[in-house]
Amino acid sequence: MNLQEESERAPLTRKDLITDQAVRWCPGCGDYAILAQMQKVMPELGIPRENIVFVSGIGCSSRFPYYMNTYGFHTIHGRAPAVATGLKLARPELSVWVVTGDGDSLSIGGNHLIHTLRRNHDVNVLLFNNKVYGLTKGQFSPTSDAGMKTKSSPNGSVARPFQALSLALGAEATFVARAVDTEANHLQEMIRRMAHHKGTAFLEIYQNCPVFFDGAYQPLKDRQTKADELLVLEQGKPLVYGRDADRVMKLNSRKLNLYPSRLGVKDDGVEVLHDEHNPDPTLATLLSRLGPSEGPTPIGVMRDVDEPTFEEATITQKEALLRDQGPGTLEELLDAGDRWEV
Ligand SMILES: Cc1ncc(C[n+]2csc(CCOP(=O)(O)OP(=O)(O)O)c2C)c(N)n1
Ligand code: SF4
Questions:
Q1: What is the CA(22)–ligand 2 centre distance, in A?
Q2: Which of 5, 18, 84, 162 yields a CA-CA distance of 20 to 30 A from 249?
Q3: Centre of ligand 2 from the C-alpha of residue 26, in Å
């Protein structure tokens, strides 16, 4: 039975998406949890398997396409967005997913990522952020905390870390969200949401590398602390968090920042309602700047706005040119314009 017949016959199940490849991640790696949630959600989306493609760069996370029983490309370091966006332009009917690490996408691939986000290609980008280079054995990455000691920074990294979501919002990405590998239901919901978004959907997943930077996100995961450390964003709701749901992030309009306060307490700040559909990315950017020293860490959708995709714009332009000028030939194209002999 070929893939086409198979997809017409029965809806996909989680099992259909598991490959016969031995999974080569270390025991306890956060990548397993992300793979499991992807294999769970994908069948619900109702996309035929032959229309799904996972594209990765280089790194531990970039082994992902081997483990998804769909089409896939394991490409070169940092270049997954280039392959994925070319593929989507040539075959707009495909569901295209990029899997990348913090080193892969923010260091060598930084430029490719920025322009994918800026152009609003209709692809889904999953950034597994473990704050370290896993595959090459634990060097610091663009998201490593300042002062972090690694084999390549034995005296502590002196660089200021990148905030991946601020970068995405700076490029005015149309869908920007964050999840944590161990928050299974929330992660599933984020995968569903991004799959339904038209345009570049960017999801940063906090992923634990137990071998080279174990516990990078422990306060966000620990049962004792996570209610006070995580701010779960909900559309139209105030930025309330804490185990007693009595803390709130308020906007200080003088300093233009968000700061932790208590519900019911009167001070200089104002409570804001979260609006992921706000076309202005300013408030989403303030959220993306929060981290352990400023208050809780937001997870969920920071921005989800509707804008034309690069594919739509390109296809519309091509159709208009074909209507006005006809199909033309390669010879006509080569003979057109200025020519000179060297
Ligand atoms: C052109 C090139 N430069 C450098 C490397 C070495 N290299 C392989 S993976 C990697 C970083 C991977 O880190 P990250 O993207 O954070 O992924 P992880 O392994 O943590 O999932 C580097 C520098 C390479 N493979 N190719
Ligand atoms: S080195 Fe880290 S990121 Fe890579 S497979 Fe092992 S635990 Fe996972």
A1: 15
A2: 162
A3: 5
